[in-house]
Every structure is written in C-alpha cells, then in structure tokens.
Design brief:
Blueprint: E1 2-11, E2 19-35, E3 42-43, E4 45-48, E5 51-59, E6 65-75
Antiparallel strand pairs: 1-6, 2-3, 2-5, 2-6, 4-5
C-alpha cells in the first residue's frame, strides 16, 4: 500500500533549531518526503535503516518561508 499526505507550515531561522520531521507507521515500511512539491524526494531514516515504523529527518539548511511538507509511505506488508 502506498499513500501520501501534505501539511503546510512556516519556518523561521530565528528559532535557531533544525527543522525536524517525524513520521510513524503502524506497519513496517519506508517513507520519503519533499518540500513544496519539489522534484527531489528525500528518504527518511527508519528505526531499521531504510525500513521500519518510526522515521526521522532533519534539515538545517532550509531558508525562512512558508512550505508544504509532503510525505509518501509504502508499507512492506502489502
């Protein structure tokens, strides 16, 4: 099974913290994300490497502004 979800957010570097993304699945799978419908998808690190049920990613180089975070997940159970 494959699914996607979008969330809008604002980011300011004045917060002086990296932007962290966290995704949890109820079954083993893999997760990717993109910002603003970009052509680049980024693989998130899971608790079992590329696969798992808990995924994290950080971005320390993002510019101030408004973004759409899109997440795409694929469960390995089918």
């Amino acid at each position: 099974m494959y699914w996607g979800k979008e969330n809008n957010f604002n980011y300011s570097s004045d917060d002086d913290v990296p932007l962290n993304f966290n995704v949890s699945l109820n079954e083993n799978g893999s997760v990717r994300y993109s910002l603003n419908g970009g052509t680049n998808n980024f693989t998130m690190t899971g608790n079992q490497g590329v696969f798992g049920t808990v995924f994290n990613a950080s971005d320390t180089s993002i510019a101030d502004g408004s973004y759409t975070f899109s997440v795409y997940a694929n469960d390995t159970s089918g």
